[in-house]
């Protein structure tokens, strides 16, 4: 009797890395392990002088890979599962999270001269220190290379590759001069796994390059030297060190190095897939396809879709990139900079409670009806990623009275994130891309039924919950299976490895009707505070909220 191959998926998140081993014949989870990053505050290196700073130590990435692989293998041995069944490895990470490396692909953070220098670390996706650099890139792009911006929502973000590198060039010339190249986290992890010591030999991810670094085959890959020189001559020097080609995650980045195979006790060749971003792999592991949007809901959210057609500009949407999600399809990415982070902020910093207080507030908020609180919030506590693309926007709450409760505020914050999600879905649909189904994944979707029902009511679309709790790692494992030639296409791999959803949320028609009224108020606030050309006066907002509140209480 033949046995099916096993695939490994590693999901590098914001605070930890999770690894899984799955059976490629049915997606069954055979082993899992979580590695919490030891450096900094929950894995994040902060700067007390700058709240926009968020860095990570790349040593955590290497240690996570080694520890997780050893633990997964130990689990398999305990179950008496033959190790040669491991056929491939896939990796996903946060992004854009670039790190500077020397000519030997060694992170500068490893070197004594830079061991305490935050600028030599990995610049985590949620680092917003390069806001002004993003504005510079956007302004020059609109003037000089509008095509560059057309495929990334017309506005470049401070969360992305070139903004962060330009910022480093300005504020820390020593780090910038010592960097032979800059490598996205997903590309560096695969290069580490494969033992690649020459940055020029790294197969760069089209997911990372296309969505965050202005890469597109139609203009020869990364931005041209003339454009980059106008931003900074140093960037044009870096451009010469970047490859002409980026690759989809069904391509092989290399093979697990001899040193790591020896360390793990493996004696067969194992291909490693080109890396990708967590949300994109999570969408694959959730069952994304044409007409389906996958919402990865966590500390932030990412909305991922695909289209079999070529897509032009989607203003305000983070990117439309060929093959960034599924090979031979165009990937669509949007998202919100803070969702779970907003709720955590409210519980920990405002209510001064621990994480268990979420359940208390949820139970109380569940007793409220839409509009009953008279509150409306804007979900910009960490800026707006889509559709306004402005990291300097901040949160807002209106409608408070002397009787406003914590539960009412908590529910209003959930509703605000759902209204923000609706803005994204509306923008996608406005440009002729159908959205027939939504699949949600991530911790919140699995744990908070109230949250998901509010989303279904506000979006007015049924929401399925991904059956796997490890969709990002599962998506990476799917690519591990693809580079091992277990399947001929991502679609076939999904049919075999992605479990079918058994939980769904159907919109409550009455709630959807009330939320449609509230959405008008959200839109007025959104447009008034989020753009420099407000269409209407804000005078009506508080009065409209009171009117809806009275209806909800009768």
Give a short synopsis of this structure.
The protein is α+β, with helices and mostly antiparallel strands. The protein contains 20 helices and 21 strands.
Uncertain spans: none
* Nearest-integer average pLDDT: 94
Number of strands: 21
Strand content: 15-25%
Helix content, binned percent? 40-55%
Shape: globular
Verbal overview:
- It is a single chain.
- By secondary structure, this protein is α+β, with helices and mostly antiparallel strands.
- It contains 20 helices and 21 strands.
- The strands form six sheets. Strands 15-16-14-13-19-20-21 form a seven-stranded mixed β-sheet, with helices on both faces. Strands 3-2-1-6-12 form a five-stranded mixed β-sheet. Strands 4-5-8 form a three-stranded antiparallel β-sheet, with no helix packed on it.
- The chain is globular.
- The mean pLDDT is 94.
Write the layout of secondary structure elements.
Layout: E1 6-12, E2 16-23, E3 29-36, E4 45-47, E5 50-56, H1 59-78, E6 86-93, E7 98-101, E8 122-123, H2 131-144, H3 146-150, H4 161-171, H5 173-178, E9 181-184, H6 185-194, H7 206-212, H8 225-231, H9 233-241, E10 252-255, H10 258-264, E11 271-273, E12 276-277, H11 278-286, E13 292-297, E14 301-307, E15 319-322, E16 330-336, H12 340-350, H13 357-366, E17 376-378, E18 396-398, H14 406-430, E19 437-441, H15 443-447, H16 449-459, E20 463-465, H17 471-483, H18 490-497, E21 503-505, H19 509-530, H20 540-553
């Amino acid at each position: 009797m033949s046995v099916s191959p096993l695939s490994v998926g590693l999901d590098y998140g914001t605070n930890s890395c999770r690894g899984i081993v799955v059976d490629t014949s049915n997606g069954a989870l055979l082993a899992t392990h979580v590695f919490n990053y030891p450096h900094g505050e929950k894995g994040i290196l902060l700067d007390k002088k700058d709240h926009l700073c968020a860095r990570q130590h790349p040593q955590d990435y290497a240690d996570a890979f080694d520890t997780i692989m050893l633990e997964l293998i130990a689990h398999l041995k305990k179950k008496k599962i033959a190790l040669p069944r491991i056929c491939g490895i896939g990796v996903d990470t946060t992004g854009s999270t670039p790190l500077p490396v020397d000519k030997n692909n060694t992170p500068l953070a490893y070197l004594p001269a830079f061991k305490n220098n935050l600028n030599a670390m990995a610049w985590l996706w949620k680092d917003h220190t390069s806001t002004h650099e993003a504005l510079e890139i956007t302004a020059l792009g609109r003037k000089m290379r509008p095509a560059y911006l057309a495929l990334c929502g017309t506005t470049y973000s401070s969360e992305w590759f070139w903004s962060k590198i330009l910022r480093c060039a300005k504020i820390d010339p020593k780090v910038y001069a010592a960097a032979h190249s800059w490598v996205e986290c997903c590309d560096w992890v695969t290069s580490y796994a494969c033992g690649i010591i020459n940055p020029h030999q790294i197969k760069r991810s089209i997911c990372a390059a296309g969505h965050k670094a202005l890469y597109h085959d139609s203009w020869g890959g990364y931005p041209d030297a003339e454009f980059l020189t106008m931003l900074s001559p140093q960037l044009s020097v870096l451009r010469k060190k970047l490859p002409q080609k980026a690759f989809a995650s069904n391509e092989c980045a290399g093979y697990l190095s001899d040193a790591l195979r020896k360390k793990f006790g493996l004696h067969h060749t194992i291909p490693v897939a080109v890396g990708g971003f967590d949300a994109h792999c999570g969408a694959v592991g959730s069952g994304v396809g044409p007409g389906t949007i996958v919402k990865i809901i966590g500390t932030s959210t990412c909305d991922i879709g695909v289209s079999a057609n070529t897509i032009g500009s989607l203003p305000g949407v983070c990117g439309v990139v060929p093959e960034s999600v599924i090979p031979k399809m165009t990937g669509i990415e949007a998202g919100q900079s803070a969702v779970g982070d907003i709720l955590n902020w409210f519980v920990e910093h405002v209510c001064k409670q621990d994480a268990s207080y979420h359940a208390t507030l949820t139970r109380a908020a569940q007793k409220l009806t839409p509009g009953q609180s008279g509150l409306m919030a804007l979900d910009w506590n960490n800026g707006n990623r889509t559709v306004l693309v402005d990291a300097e926007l901040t949160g807002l709450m209106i409608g408070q009275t002397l009787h406003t409760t914590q539960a009412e505020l908590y529910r209003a914050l959930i509703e605000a994130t759902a209204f923000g999600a609706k803005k994204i879905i509306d923008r996608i649909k406005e440009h002729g891309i159908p959205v027939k189904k939504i699949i949600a994944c991530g911790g919140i979707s699995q744990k908070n039924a109230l949250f998901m029902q509010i989303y279904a009511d506000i979006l007015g679309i049924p929401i399925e919950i991904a059956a796997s709790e490890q969709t990002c790692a599962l998506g990476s494992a799917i690519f591990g299976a693809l580079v091992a030639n277990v399947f001929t296409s991502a679609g076939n791999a999904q049919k075999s490895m992605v479990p079918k959803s058994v939980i769904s949320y159907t919109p409550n028609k009455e709630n959807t009707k009330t939320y449609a009224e509230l959405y008008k108020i959200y839109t007025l606030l959104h447009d008034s505070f989020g753009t420099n050309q407000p269409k209407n006066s804000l005078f009506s907002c508080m009065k409209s909220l009171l009117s809806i509140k009275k209806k909800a209480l009768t």
